[in-house]
């Protein structure tokens, strides 16, 4: 049986034994296995057989031949690759050809790579860009690449923007990434979030975790229409974007809701809040990262399947909704997560590391919480996970829809700071009463402000 070890041995013999081995094979799988096992190629490698394989009728073989030709670097011959590109129908092979030519790093290939920039396949364009970017500080290359900042494909635009147009945006007077303003630390403001945020500076919070009102499904807020509701959330998350530090996260807990029917001659109406909200968030510079599903026990949710259980008639199927979404977004940036992490000192990074037992999937099984005063509070376990996975110790955690203050109390228990807004006086007072009961709220001072008091605290 052919092994990688044997193939490596033949490769280093250097007298064309690999070519003979490939030529003796009838089975495509074995040829591909040999080609995939070649690894680095020695300088005296007999590569002619690779060029013959460019006309093989199996795309996997052609792809691996092109890949290996790429490893010959400046010794590889561009002409047969270009000839194959002209009539190749397999897109992976075409991309590999561009990558192979790029890897040669030959100035003479620049015009060929410029040509690939006009290809319809954005992945080919990206490969060509990659091949061209090795010519650092080359004016001619820059002239060809810069116009692609207006390319129709978003990946292409992002690469070019980052390479040529992104400037250090950090303002001189803004705070270091890991820090925030004292007047926002452990503060709850009893006000409409949009009013309170007028006084919050740009780039001051590290993480937002929130559960917005469920349109008109609960009693605490009423909107004249669904469109008005979505536009309100749009504004809140635009403002949240402004006050969020570069590259940091927003996690929004929502779920589709149901508004009961007006009478028996009408049907009830479902609203897909997470799906309708998503386009607004993306439009405003929130990059979609993940969807986490919060799974509740069936016994804890409203029974919708009862009718169907009786009649069993198709179309009348209404499953019990045991899930809510945690939609995870990141404030768009050219910086990698590493940049965010490097903003913290060694001790903070070590102390914030997530302990064993963390959730490994995007399905989080957590029991919901019921409360005598507030009808929609977060379970502490849900807050704990979000705060531990998406923030560092000492970070400022924001909840625009504070409710009973679960995000604040949990943030505090995890050595984070918090800033909450809550419009309803009864929930604001409830939070204050919880502060008295709770050990966690007691040991460090929390400021409960009216809007005017908050304005004064800033001055
Ligand atoms: C789903 S609840 C949040 C519950 C919270 N996660 C908790 O654990 O208690 C939404 C909250 O947003 C509040 N709210 C609604 N509109 C608001 C606004 N414009 N500004 C501030 N709070 C608002 C409601 O009063 C309600 O308490």
Short description:
With 459 residues, this protein is α/β, with parallel strands linked by helices. It has helices spanning 4-13, 17-23, 28-36, 48-52, 59-70, 78-87, 91-103, 110-116, 122-133, 139-145, 154-165, 193-197, 226-243, 273-283, 306-311, 337-341, 346-352, 380-390, 406-413, 425-437, 439-442, 451-458, and strands spanning 187-190, 205-210, 244-254, 257-259, 269-271, 286-295, 323-331, 363-365, 396-399, 417-421, 447-450.
Structural class by sheet pairing and helices: alpha/beta
Shape descriptor reads elongated
**CATH superfamily placement of the largest domain:** Vaccinia Virus protein VP39
In DSSP terms (H or I, runs of 4 or more residues), the helix count works out at 22
CATH topology heading of the largest domain? Rossmann fold
| Strand count | 11
Query: Sheet with the most strands?
Result: 9 strands, mixed
Strand content: 5-15%
The domain tally reads 2
Strand order of the largest sheet: 8-6-7-3-2-9-10-1-11
* Average pLDDT score: 92
Q: Identify low-pLDDT runs.
A: none
| Euclidean distance between termini CA atoms | 79 Å
Query: What is the CA-based Rg, rounded?
Result: 29 Å
CATH architecture of the largest domain: 3-Layer(aba) Sandwich
- What small molecules accompany the polymer chains? S-adenosylmethionine
Which CATH class of the largest domain is shown?
Alpha Beta
Helix content: 40-55%
How would you describe this structure to a colleague?
The chain is of the alpha/beta class. It folds into two domains: 4-165, Leucine-rich Repeat Variant (Alpha Horseshoe); 182-458, Rossmann fold, CATH 3.40.50. Helices cover 44% and strands 14% of the residues. A nine-stranded mixed beta sheet has the order 8-6-7-3-2-9-10-1-11. A two-stranded antiparallel ribbon has the order 4-5. Helix 7 (91-103) runs parallel beside helix 9, helix 8 runs antiparallel to helix 9 and helix 13 packs across helix 14. It is elongated. The model has no long low-confidence stretch (mean pLDDT 92). The structure holds S-adenosylmethionine. Residues 192-193, 211, 213, 220-221, 374, 376-378, 401, 403-404, 406, 421-424, 427 line the site of S-adenosylmethionine.
